[in-house]
Amino acid sequence: MGGAVSAGEDNDDLIDNLKEAQYIRTDRVERAFRAIDRGDYYLDDYRDNAYKDLAWKHGNIHLSAPCIYSEVMEGLRLRPGLSFLNLGSGTGYLSTMVGLIVGPFGVNHGVELHKDVVEYAREKLEDFIKNSDSFDKFEFCEPVFVVGNCLEISADSHQYDRIYCGAGVQKDHENYMKVLLQIGGVLVMPIEDQLTQITRTGQCTWESKNILAVSFAPLVQQSRADGANKPDSVRLPPVSVRSLQDLSRIYIRRTLRRLGGGGDDDDWDWGIDGRGPGPTQRHPATTAAAAAPTPQTLPPPPPPQKRKRRRRCSRRRFNAYVFGDSQLINPKPQAKLGCGSIGGWEEEAEEAEAEGREERGEEGETTTTTTTVEEEEEEEEEVMVVGGEEEGEGERERDMAEVETLKQANVLRDQIMALPLPESLKAYLLYYREK
Ligand SMILES: C[S@@+](CC[C@H](N)C(=O)[O-])C[C@H]1O[C@@H](n2cnc3c(N)ncnc32)[C@H](O)[C@@H]1O
């Protein structure tokens, strides 16, 4: 199955083709596809084929064609905060893309028949978390994979907002799949050679729509040879409330990402602020997250004109920061740091602090801070004038190249590395990144 769109040279090329052919139709899905390189889920020797619209099978490892995954991702109507179950989760490619959309307050579970494939998926996931720049640009719900036959899920299992089945479902198992779904939830599965989208509209009602004609290998049936050898039921991973430590990490990374302007999530729904899971019932983890401090307590993103006011690298830097009221504040200037530090924040944080003080009527401090800001603006003007005299075309070009390099850098990782924190804490904030 596949071959519906032209082959790409690389991942971006493949996604361009899928978009052009209307398989990818929404920004959210497009971003998830661009963030994960399909080639990373291939064995090295076969990677060259990863950007063709073709399925790939090697031993137990099996990836569906990109046009199918595009239809699945669109058909699932994913949003932040939803719970997702992948039946036949394979390499984890699809689950990882879903994790970028459902975000840290979603749930992301997968069941896969083959132990070696689950091990492969776990390796790929670890590689993504440790080495991909996309991991720092998005908020993420890590998939959890279990080994087992997805037709043997224990009867007392929780239900999910979104379910995908990656292998052909027999008509006999249609109801089994449908009851795993929450009311309001969406199930996408291949059944009778049609990729079908089923929405649970009530306790006993579902609506069904065919999306695409497909040909899938069938789900492996239960190994229930006789009653005596009845296999154990497959237990899905528990849905647990996030620890305070985890929540702190999520919020610190989110705050840094927003302040540094290095993320893709500024215009995303975050799934915990009421714009996430809409009409469907909230999952326990999501509900617990909703009780946690919401993004509304974060400082609003700085207005665009302030971000544009870029300062030169020779500017004064601070190396002490305090987290207060969800804002990063530098209590006092301490030292000069190089360009790799958290450029741009200190001025903005200081201004925000000054504005806050002004609102609270703390005049004395406001005056002091305002003076500092004014001095800095003068300093900046001076630099600009000197720059105007000194800078030739070549230097301007070098500056532009420098800006480009900075844009390409992994902003969040650099920010965390520049924080005056113990190494172990930085490693925790980086999810033990090796890159
Ligand atoms: C086309 S692959 C899915 C690939 C997956 N979507 C990915 O992102 O890599 C289908 C997967 O379903 C698994 N599978 C087949 N029957 C199964 C069953 N009864 N229970 C669990 N997994 C099953 C296969 O081992 C295979 O990995």
UniProtKB/TrEMBL annotation:
It comes from Muraenolepis orangiensis. It is a lipid-anchor. GO terms for molecular function: protein-L-isoaspartate (D-aspartate) O-methyltransferase activity. It comes from the Eukaryota. Belongs to the methyltransferase superfamily. L-isoaspartyl/D-aspartyl protein methyltransferase family. InterPro entries: PCMT (IPR000682), SAM-dependent_MTases_sf (IPR029063). The keyword Translocase does not apply. Substrate recognition component of an ECS (Elongin BC-CUL5-SOCS-box protein) E3 ubiquitin ligase complex which mediates the ubiquitination and subsequent proteasomal degradation of target proteins. Specifically binds to the methyltransferase cofactor S-adenosylmethionine (AdoMet) via the N-terminal AdoMet binding motif, but does not display methyltransferase activity. May provide an alternate maintenance pathway for modified proteins by acting as a damage-specific E3 ubiquitin ligase adaptor protein. Residues 373-394 have a biased composition (Acidic residues). Keywords: Cytoplasm, Lipoprotein, Membrane, Myristate. GO terms for cellular component: cytoplasm; membrane. Residues 278-295 have a biased composition (Low complexity). Residues 263-313, 346-399 are annotated as: Disordered. It is found in: Cytoplasm; Membrane. It holds the Pfam family PCMT. This is Protein-L-isoaspartate O-methyltransferase domain-containing protein 1.
